[in-house]
Predict the 3D structure of the following.
Amino acid sequence: MTVNGIGLEVVEKGRGRPLLFLHPGIGLDPNAPVIDKLAEQARVIAPSHPGFGNSEQPKAFTTVDDLAYFYLDLLEELDLKDIVLVGVSFGGWIAAEIAVKSTARLSHLVLANAVGIKVGARDTRDIVDIFAITEPELNKLAYFDPKLAERDYKAMAEADVRVIARNREASARYGWSPYMHDPKLKSRLHRIRIPTLFLWGGADRILSEDYGRAYCAAIPGAHFETIARAGHYPHIEAPDAFARAIFAFTQGQAK
Amino acid sequence: MRVYHFSEHPYPNAWDDPHGYLRVDLPNRALDPKIAADLFHRYHDEYLLADELGLDLMLNEHHQTATCMNATSIVSLSIMARQSKRARILILGYPIGHRSDPMRAAEELAMIDVISRGRLEMGFVKGVPYEFAPSNANPVGVMDRFWEAHDLIIKAMTTHDGPFNWEGEHFHYRQANLWPRPWQQPHPPVWSTTASKSNARVLGERGYVIAVLGSGYNTRMLYDSYREGYASTHNGALPGPDRFAYLALFATAHNETEARQRGELVAGYLRTGANVYPPFKSPPGYFSVDDTARLMRGFTPERSFTKDRRVVDMRTASVQDLIDSVLMVCGTPDQCYQQITEFIEYTGGLGNLLIMAQAGFLTHADTVDSLTLMAKEILPRLKEYKQPVAAAIAAA
């Protein structure tokens, strides 16, 4: 798919109401079970963000703002309406930045273990510095079951390792400083006036649940639900519960 | 031929800290300011001695580390600008890839050039990987930021009818007007370091001094890439030896045994320098995606070569291996002269030898002796030595 001249890698699956799934900084596994679960009840559109996966990195894109405007263009280009917008972690940050700009094409917003705002004091770190710890340490903090994340790079295809390196670089490009947040975002969240659900993997130790609840409190009427036996990536560790919670929310609550 | 004395201003008293890592995250309670003061005074005395002896001076900076207390080289450069009498004063380098304010850098460097009455040699570097955590500068896009900062500094130094406007991708000034302007015209000589052929070529195209370290008998390909770039912008002319620099550790003494003992102490620099918590060694985007992927798959690039193409790991190498790979020049003055000139013949011409003559636990007395021998017994012969002429670069 090409949007604004930018080549985009996109997974599309299922039929019905459009659901735009925005992946976290670790990227998108096109064969992830969560895609199938969501595709049972929606038309899933899951792009790799510009700079991630095999999507093109435009030189001018340096902020999450750039990504948010890009996705608003994508929604227009595909002429999607009544969209369920779902973002996990870094993808949740993009989703929130999209929603404060325009909810015209959105019906529901789902933010799962999302980063993007600053909650604590200036000398308190809200979000673990993922660039300052080793991968095994990071996985222990991110996953309920860190074994799920174990990988042997030497045994992997070079192209797949390149994608992991690319995802890490893109995460830094957009999130190095200010670290994984936009200082302006919190004061703009009140503009989101569509039904919003926070899904929170309860075993997340990258972000605290207090962080998630503070985020939730800044969006009028937003609901907060935890997902058991899942950490920072509930869509990976609990795809059933993740999809179930989303559809219970979207079907139970009209726009 | 110029020989530059160099010390990283180490704080070796913290090198056995049980915390384990020497850079970025070593708590500064491991430093006693009184010891640090004594060390700074001592290192500065050694630099001033080098000035008296006819050597030139090289300074650098690193951040949050017990390997190098020069957290801003500008402070030590300033002291040398005022207190030294004759030496060239080289900063190698000023890490403009992670400095947020290039106009401030231009002001500092211009002041140092003026105070020293035109003795500044201006080396720019992007900054080592583990300094993107201390500075918080984004490692992604560092080379873009490096070149924009460079362009702005040069423009500030060469514009004499300012103010001018700068609204770049990374830096913004609406009233840029450098006071004082530098002593040297059009600006102090520019140096940079590189380990890549493509960057070497770019430095050659610009005619800047290329400084290389750690590559030993693999240096020629970098120099030849430089020569190609230089020839491409200089009507086919080849650069003279003054465009080339090489950094080696250094230890000499009146006899070989003592020189080797000093070499062991100086090698402490290499044995501790990479003692960094791994995540800080390859911040995202600092290396290309391809290089990062190769590192993740366990391939580390071979860097230091001996004359017979053996690869040496500088962190664990013996002094003999360090000598064989020209990571260190070590021995009696005669032996040092032989090692240096044999290497220069291989490089095709090398006009600036940068010697780390003080490192680690090498004492003041040993450093003074080593520097004195260099100045009195090696440097005069190097000044008379006829540099080779790199005739062919086609083999590059």
Remarks:
- The CA atoms of residues 98 and 136 of chain B lie 8 Å apart.
- Chain B has one domain: 2-384.
- The mean pLDDT of chain B is 95.
